[in-house]
Write a structure and sequence with these properties.
Helix content is 58%, strand content 0%. The chain has 4 helices and no strands. The relative contact order is 0.11. This is PiggyBac transposable element-derived protein domain-containing protein.
């Protein structure tokens, strides 16, 4: 159900997202960014519509990763978790 609603929402907001992307590209070009390529709205819409739809298992994966980060947050590098010396060891 969540995947269906997400896909429906993505289809409904396609034009608005394309406009925001084009506005961002124009702002970057006006600021003197190296990337001077500004796509047309039709190109952006076509690129966004080619994106694959969301699948239910992708949401399960994201939720699982979020829960794992909540249960075992690594404030520092993960290598500190496996450290054998006392200094810098993460419990």
């Amino acid at each position: 159900k969540i995947a269906e609603e997400s896909n429906r929402y993505a289809a409904r907001t396609l034009i608005a997202r394309a406009r925001r992307i084009r506005d961002r590209q124009l702002r970057c070009k006006n600021r003197g960014s190296r990337s001077s390529d500004v796509e047309s709205l039709a190109q952006i819409r076509e690129r966004l519509s080619r994106m694959e739809s969301f699948a239910p298992h992708e949401y399960a994966l994201v939720f699982g990763l979020l829960i794992a980060c909540m249960l075992c947050p690594h404030k520092r590098r993960l290598s500190s978790h496996w450290s054998t010396t006392r200094a810098g060891v993460v419990p």
